[in-house]
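Table 4 source record.
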Amino acid sequence: MNIWTSFRDAFLSEGNYENLSSDSMLSLLPWLIIAIFVGIALSFVVTVFTKRVLGAMVRGMLSDEASSPEKAKTLSELGFDKNFFLRRAVRGNVSLRRVVHCREEEEFLLAQEEERAAYEEARKNDPSMKKWPKKVKEFRVDSMAHHFYIPEECRDMASVKFNQKGTSIGSLVVLFVLLLIFLIVLLIALPWIMEMVDSIVGTLKSAASSGNDKIV
């Protein structure tokens, strides 16, 4: 409790600024800065997770030359069937699925498109037929049974996007420490920055007031 009180009094207390409105937004400024830094820290974690955990599958596929529907492999064949995160990711992780394609999904969508094209062709010959009546079915990836591959045109992007370099736990800890130091320095300097802004606003107000007096 004493630590929190000291932190609040040092960094989160609202200052008194003569020329700045002391509304709730001004008092929330330190919290806003902290929230931004927390968001940056979380983005570091997501980046490391993406490159190390999801990237392991991508690098395995690139190494095994799984580059076409014919060469597509299951998670079991790639050695990742026990990885919970990858089993979930192949079902819809946007970052991963930009480069990793599912053979069964493509076959499903192609069959749907061919069925619709055939129906539209028949409709041309029989105007009494209604418009395509079927709703597009949602394909569900079976992470344990379906096959995955990285198309040739996506290989370079996959190699760069999921490069493991610089994503060690040690690097992440160093980034966190540097981020925390920068946050503390910014919070310490915040009252001085606000006083400077307050002074500038006061000068501008005085200049504007003097101008109005001359006009009158």
